[in-house]
Amino acid sequence: MSPEHRGGSTAAPRTLADDLRARDDEALAELLRARPDLLSPVPNDLTQLATRAGTRASVVRAVERLDRFALQTAEAIAVAPDPCAYATLETLLAGEDPGPGQGTPGDPHTGGDPGRGDPARHVAAELPRALRTLRRQALLWGGDDRLHLVRTVRELLTPSPSAPSPTGLGPTLTEATAGMSPGRLQDILANAGLPATHDPVSALAGLTALFADAGRTADLLENAPPESLAMLEKLRWGPPYGSVQTDTPSPPVTWLLDRGLLVRTAPRTVVLPREVALRLRDGRAHREVEPLPPEPVVRREYPQEAVDETAAGQALAALGTLEDLLSEWETDPPSVLRSGGLGVRDLKRTATVLDLPEPTAAFWIELAYAAGLLAPDSEPDEAYAPTPAYDEWLRRPPHERWAHVVVHWFTGTRVPGLVGTRDAKGRGLTALGQGLDRGLTADVRRRTLELLASLDAGSAPTQHSVLEQLRWERPLRGTGSAVGEASGDLRTQLAEWALHEAELLGLTGRGALASYARELLLPGPGAPSAVAGDARTAGELEAAAARTAGRLAPLLPEPLDHILLQADLTAVAPGPLERPLAAMLGVLADVESKGGATVYRFTPASVRRALDAGRTASDIHAFLAAHSRTPVPQPLSYLVDDVARRHGRLRVGAASSYVRCDDDALLTEITADRRSAPMRLRLLAPTVLASPLPPDQLLAKLREMGYAPAAESAEGDVLIARADAHRSPPRTAPEPVPDGPPVPDAALLTAAVRAIRAGDHAATAEHKPSRAPGRAPKPPATPGGGPPRTTSADTIATMRSAVASGDALWIGYVNADGAASQRVIAPVRVEGGFVTAYDHTADEIRTYPLHRITGVAELAGP
Fold first, then answer.
1. Using CA atoms, how far apart are residues 581 and 583, in angstroms rounded to an integer?
2. Is the pLDDT of residue 602 over 50?
3. Are 184 and 249 contained in the same domain?
């Protein structure tokens, strides 16, 4: 009996419910933690828990979470007789006798891996762990001498023509020969050299015994035609079904059919029986057995300091990319498609602005959305814009801003990698649109980083080895294999994207995990040790992110308050700039290149942009002199003065539009220029030109001609053309889509186990008839474990007696909806037609109307 069973009973369980009843509270809590869907709602008793654990949907979810060896173990039990002994199972996994060529490293038929030793030895060492995994998830029950798979698990993994088993084994001889005439069975016995029998059962037993004996089967095959042996070899590892071209099989096939080595299932279809296949495989159910996960392959080892420096640089670049994205969208917000999401043209435009590939741009857009920094507004023409939370985010230190977005990446379920693909209905998936959530995402991202954390510091593994280990841990997760559905390996794709995105965010550097990122995967001081694969609570993750940010902060450069002006009208920012300096420089100059240092270029258009925003020439000169560590170059001073001198000499207003200038010679120059023909200008007065174009178009045309016009109001004042910073209404970050029910916390598990135990005690406890004072004991009206039924007088009398003695009672109760249940209660007070009692089933004090209690009985035991 497994160690998690309770010590009170040594009898072998007859059902899964009996097996669960024998487990201790810790084992039941572990089951509910591993399969939280069993808790919704909390089962009334252990029988209901066992029934729910055997439903197909719940079993599929549990089987999909098995590692490859636990799954292979379940598959082997599924093709073994029920119940299966431990020794039989070990033979199915490791083979009968690992002789020469079997069990040796690198043997493709045993799954040997050079340097990993003998697979049979690893099977013997790892099989107890695999059985514990299956038992703890209630997929397997019984002792080692009588292993039973839950019926639904066996149905999922048992081979059939429509859904072949992963083992490649076909039906048993009994199943394959169902419907075969007794005479045909006797002919097979005679051809196989076996004595005739009097009935089909003994005939099949004789054939089964023949194929179970390696020596006798070898003698039978010794005289087989070479073509027959070749056919057996083709069907040996599956699929076990073959076809013949005509209704009359060829002599090699006939030879096999006459000896039961093949069985005809249709006029042109034959099958290799399971017993024959196992003999040909030396007793192994799987061609390759994998008791151990594949070892990671380290591509290169780097000093941890180099990894951290690279990752910190990526973290800083990530913040810059997000700021560039959101600053672009706050002045030019893209529209929301009618069907939701971002248009393909807007995605391309944003990728061009950020100088990134479209898939990478989609990642940053989705990350800003997941972090609550971006949302659609509520205007009639809906558009995407930064949220008010973006302004608060900008005011925080860089390491805290980074931690904020990383936490939302870590827990988010939206998959940017799916942008540009199509869903199951053929609809295109767009950035910020519907259909991008995948519940597996957070689990895969966490597990991928945990695998990197398990390596030595500075180790960069190959992507292939990481993906192979993830496939071993969850071979069915994201593939649909457990239910026979055809779909892509989503888990592998998610892992590939997770590795790429972790590098972009600065969680990894050069392919190795940054030291500060390990804090995201470790429990905090005083917290219980984290179990690999367990989800973290929001509070634990926030605390881990704060520790991570604290370790990242010293690696980030301090923001600078200066720039270096150069004679070629450029400025070099040797590092990240303080926010006010960066904002002003972004208006005054254009970014020419980015990297460790950012290069800005001053142009007439950029200087005019600063003047349009309300800055004066003296403001610009003072700004440059205050923030440059080098003298202000004379060409830059001349550029500012020249643009400022010409800025505003022309005034454009609304007539439809007009041009006003105190210098009539300048107006004459404009009208004489052939480039002004599209504007259809005409002279209204010596200092005023009129045009049918709108003011904004007229401004643009004049600027294209090289002039620096300024817009003016109806009162003649210069209009400051500062771009409005668009904001959406306050929006919370989108909630991740959970991958199934949430994992219950310890308090909920304790309460659930207590309630299930109490309900099971109420359903299975022996009870005695009520004994009211002065009345003769009466037997319960409903024998055989049904709810008790007593008269009202007996019920009240028994209740009052239990109040005085403190005994627990077993009652039948019908609620207001007419649903009947059984409960164990300890009465505290009986008055006014109600009984107040501690309900052991619900684990709380409750009050019940006496008229809804069908009967009461004393418990025979504690």
1. 5
2. yes
3. yes
* Biggest CA pair distance of the chain: 127
Tokens of 766: 């022996």
Please report how many Cα atoms fall inside a 13 Å half-sphere around the Cα of residue 193, on the Cβ side: 10
Strands (E), 561-675: 564-566, 570-573, 590-593, 598-601, 651-653, 657-660
Dihedral pair phi/psi, residue 688, rounded to 5°: -135, 130
**Cα–Cα dist 109/102, whole Å:** 7
What separation in angstroms does the CA of 149 have from each of 19, 290, 520, 774? 12, 21, 38, 54
Paired tokens of 36: 């939280």
Q: How many domains does the chain have?
A: 6
For 653-673, how does the pLDDT look when each residue is reduced to its tens digit (9 = 90+)?
666 787 888 888 888 888 888
142 and 31 share one domain: yes
Distance separating alpha carbons of residues 578 and 134, to the nearest angstrom? 57
Contact 138, 63 (CB under 8 A): no
Closest CA to 482 of 83, 65, 42, 812: 65
Q: Phi then psi for 570, rounded to 5 degrees?
A: -125, 160
With 0.70 as the threshold, say if the pTM is over it.
yes
DSSP state of 462: -
Highest mean pLDDT among 36-45, 314-323, 473-482: 314-323
Per-residue model confidence (pLDDT) at position 371: 94
The token duo for 400 is 């805290």
Regarding whether 152 and 233 lie in a shared domain, the answer is: no
Residues 6 or more apart from 368 whose CB is under 8 A from it? 322, 325, 326, 374, 405
160 has a pLDDT exceeding 80: no
- The 3 state secondary structure assigned to 233-292 is HHHHCCCCEEECCCCCCCHHHHHHHHCCCCEEEECCEEECCHHHHHHHCCCCCCCCCCCC
For the segment 486-501, what is each residue's pLDDT rounded down to a tens digit? 344 888 999 999 999 9
Residues 6+ apart with CB under 8 A from 345: none
Strands 710-711 and 651-653: parallel
Distance CA 481, CA 461 (A): 28
Reported as a pLDDT band with limits 50, 70 and 90, residue 692 is: confident
Do 769 and 856 meet the contact criterion of CB atoms below 8 Å apart? no
- Centre a 10 Å sphere on the Cβ of residue 455 and count the other Cβ atoms it contains: 16
| Helix, strand, coil fractions of the chain, as percent rounded to 5 | 45, 15, 40
Cα angle 804-810-812, degrees, rounded to a multiple of 5 = 125
Task: Kindly tell me the burial class for residue 200, based on how many C-beta atoms sit within 10 Å of its own C-beta (0-12, 13-18, 19 or more).
Answer: middle
Q: Which two tokens stand for residue 798?
A: 């028994």
Evaluate whether 516 touches 556 at the Cβ level (below 8 Å).
no
Same domain flag for 45 and 152: yes
Distance CA 35, CA 858 (A): 35
Higher pLDDT, 166 or 218: 218
Structural domain boundaries enclosing 367: 298-555
Beta bridge partners of 566: 570
What distances in angstroms separate CA 810 from CA 790, 799, 827, one per listed residue? 12, 10, 11
- Residues 112 and 183 reside in one and the same domain: no
**Residue (of 859, 247, 731, 307) closest to 552 by Cα position:** 307
Residues 626 and 677 in one domain: no
**Model pLDDT for residues 749-779, shown as the tens digit of each residue:** 888 888 888 778 777 765 555 444 444 334 3
How does DSSP assign 698-761, residue by residue? HHHHHHHTT---EEB-TTSPBPP-PPP---PPP-PPPPPPPSSSPPP-HHHHHHHHHHHHHHHH
Asked if 26 and 130 sit in the same domain, the reply is yes
Domain boundary among 601, 631, 661: 631
Contacts of 508 (CB under 8 A, 6+ apart): 307, 311, 452, 499, 502, 514, 517
DSSP summary character for residue 786: P
The span from the CA of 503 to the CA of 513, in Å, is: 9
